[in-house]
Amino acid sequence: MTKANGGRLALHWQILIAIGVxxxxxxxxxxxxxxxxxxFYSVFDFVGRLFLNALKMLIVPLIAxxxxxxxxxxxxxxxxxxxxxxxxxxxxxxxxxAIVLGLSIINIVKPGxxxxxxAGDMMALxxxxxxxxxxxxxxxxxxIVEIFIRMVPENVFAAASNNGGILSIIFFSLLFGFFITRIxxxxxxxxxxxxxxxxxxxxxxxxxxxxxxxxxVFGLVAKVVAKAGLAAAGxxxxxxxxxxxxxxxHMFVTLPLFIRMSTGLxxxxxxxxxxxxxxxxxxxxxxxATVPVTLDCIETRAGVSNKISSFVVPLGATINMxxxxxxxxxxxxxxxxxxxxxxxxxxxxxxxxxxxxxxxxVAGIPAASLVAIAVILTAVGLPPEAIGVLFVFDRVLDMxxxxxxxxxxxxxxxxxxxxxxxxxxxGQH
Length: 429
Prior knowledge:
mainly alpha, Proton glutamate symport protein, two-stranded antiparallel ribbon, 18 helices, 6 strands
């Protein structure tokens, strides 16, 4: 059994054990069981809410610092021109394709609907349908205009005080990061260093919060099981299957099509070449931790030059999250179905836009995408507390979507290298 941190059980095993214990505890306790007048259900709720609050606490500083550092790094690069433009274009294109694929499958299968009715009660989602529907509202073309209006904040500090205003923070961070590179090296480097420090601190804080995940997951899962029994397992298992199917199609159909159509190369040699990186990404659920392995595979096994890989791969570990973007959209739509709310075309467009942008600001560490999901849920009017039910299968899905993230980085590296005129890529001339 895998161990880490000086002999301690690895986090994913801790979470899996916590889920198992939570199921037993929830079944035994029910909603009424307790001691000294305190129900176990209220204890589960207390523990789960503390963990969710800790996650939401990270949203604004983590995303702002990540985006400022990322944009400042891109803007100061001498290679930004054609190389940077091509890289960012393919990152955006593959992420958009992943999102559309994920939304399509969730819309077709409707895992949030069980036996012809919303599965929210089965999963102990507490907000009622009318309340959630009123928060989401009926979206139309005018709401797209409203998105862009809300994107530019009247007061950035007021926006930062509300997780619902995260789109404004993202826009401000993009501008701030870009103009850092336009003020000269003295002050520019000082600001970049400051925000890098903030990002490193936020990454450490996120990692620390995730060490509490077994306790938080125990509370969240035990609460659901105590209220709804094992009925929630069905819809969640179908949702997990939909996500895994979407990730597999994107990885083995969509990405190869991008390579074939953009370069004419046969795409299949990419997978054995990238196998060590993909397995590392799957086992660690961290695209950032996988960067050294990804670079080695891209250069020594796939035949991409260091000039291309050293630019594309680190950038991709920061802003290219195909699997994460797919999962964010799928999760939000699944939860909307579970609440019995019909998300129209324009509401789903909002989700797509937010997933594209927030996936850029997601730290490349395990479970960090849960922060982005909380952002999107809040933005479209769904209760962010609903992400608690996702923890049952999140670890497996996190491992799978991280592997897809790395596959997306490798795909972009191969395409950009070929378009830059490089030969002998994937053993082909």
